[in-house]
Structures are given as C-alpha cells and as structure tokens.
Amino acid sequence: MSKLVEVMVKDCVGYIKLNRPEKLNSLSRELVKEAIASLDAHSQNPKVKVIILSGAGKGFCAGGDIQSMQMLTGATEATGWVEFVSGLTKKIMELDKYVIAAVHGYAAGAGFSIALAADFIVASQHAKFALSFTNIGLIPDLGLIKTLSERLSPVLAKEWISSGKIVQAEDALSYGIINRVVEGDVVKGAEEFAGFIFNGPPIANKYVKYLVNNVPSLNSDTAFMQENMIQTVLLQSADHKEGVTAFVEKRKPNFKGC
Q1: How far apart are CA 118 and CA 157, in angstroms?
Q2: What burial class does residue 9 get, using C-beta atoms within 10 Å of its C-beta: 0-12 exposed, 13-18 middle, 19+ buried?
Q3: Model confidence at 75: pLDDT above 90
Q4: For residues 41 and 51, what is the distance between their CA atoms, to the nearest angstrom?
Q5: How far is residue 169's CA from residue 101's CA, in Å, rounded to a whole number?
Q6: Are the C-beta atoms of residues 164 and 131 closer than 8 Å to each other?
Q7: Domains of the chain, each with CATH number or no CATH
Q8: Residues facing residue 64 across a β-bridge
C-alpha cells in the first residue's frame, strides 16, 4: 500500500491517516481506494477495537479532488465517480467497529461528509467544517445531507448548505455535530476520548452502532424486536458473563469480544 494512506495498529487502536498533504488530502481515486482497503483491514483485525481517522498536513480533508472531477466526461462517468467516492462514507457507516474522525484544520465539502459518517468527531479548537459545495454549483454528497439533517433542524440544514456555511469547532460542538473540542494533538485527544471504547464490550458496541444507525428507519415494533433479539444473543456471551462476574467481584471487567 502506498503512502497516500498511512496505516498503523497500536494496542487496540487502528489508525488511518489520509496522506496527501500537498493536495490538502483531497479525494483522488487512489486515496479513496486505499482508505476503503485500510478500513476493511482494521475491521477484520480482531485486535482492533476502534479506528481513528485523521489527515496529514494542514487539515483533515479538503473534499473532492477538483482535477479528477474536471476530467469526468458525461453523466455515466460522473455517476460512476460519485458512487465510487460515496463507497468511503458507506464503508465507515457499515463497519462493525466504531470510527472516530480526528479533525484539525479544514474538513471541507466531502471532507465534512467523511467526518459526519464517523461515529464520533473529535476536533481541534481551530478546526473548521465547511459546506463548500454551493461555491462550485453542487449539492452535498457522500451522505452529508442525511447525516447533517439528523443533527440539525431542517431549516438550519437548508440554510447552512445553501449558504456554504463555515462552522467553527466550538459552534459545531454547541449544535451537537461533534463530540469534543481539544487543544493540542487532535489524534491524542481522540485516543483519550476513546477510553470508554477500549474498555467496553466490542460485541455490544457493534450492535449499538448498528441499532442507532438504523433505528430511524424502523417502526416501534421492529425496533423492540431487534433489541430483544440482540439482547438474547448478548445474554449468552462470554463478555456478559465477565461483566456480571466483575460486578460481583467489584473489579473492572476484561471484555474480549466473545
């Protein structure tokens, strides 16, 4: 794998760093391809409990690569490109493991889409989230309209998107768009934030992610049924038994994901 994406596993954390700093980590075809492959690799690694996604250089990600987009000829090529790049945010959402976007500098356009696709966002105090699509005559893609609208009222979502709003980190926090604002190294801040994931039960976390991501599309009866079915499975798990034993013994549980 080339250096367009840097990948590392340390302890129970899988790290993915977008590494195209000379282009502000804009999304070329190769970068997207390698990022998806890296997510798959961490997903399949039993040692990894959480994935931290960050960007090299001055910012997290400046969005789509304008050069690549200018080379598209006709609707068929354009459709293929958008569907391909959208595969990155779909992959983040569909992974069994939690993904934390560690954002510094700009998360602009599709870079904002990627951050919103993650389960959690930890941002540096100077980070900015830019809805820059309208500046080039486009609408948000990679799932941003849905993920932003789930966090904001419809009137604000429409205003922010159509005005090309730039959202400061503290404002994003106040609107509930991100989880934490940190000073200093944002990846280190993401590691500290992830403590509850390191120490938590991996299988239960997997199902929490699935249910929370899908519950808006479920009616009440289906939501209850899914919870009941999953809880039945978890009640038979070794992690549940370990949790009960640790509670009785007044110690921290040692969850192993089984």
Answers
A1: 19
A2: middle
A3: no
A4: 11
A5: 13
A6: yes
A7: 5-198 (3.90.226.10), 202-249 (no CATH)
A8: 27
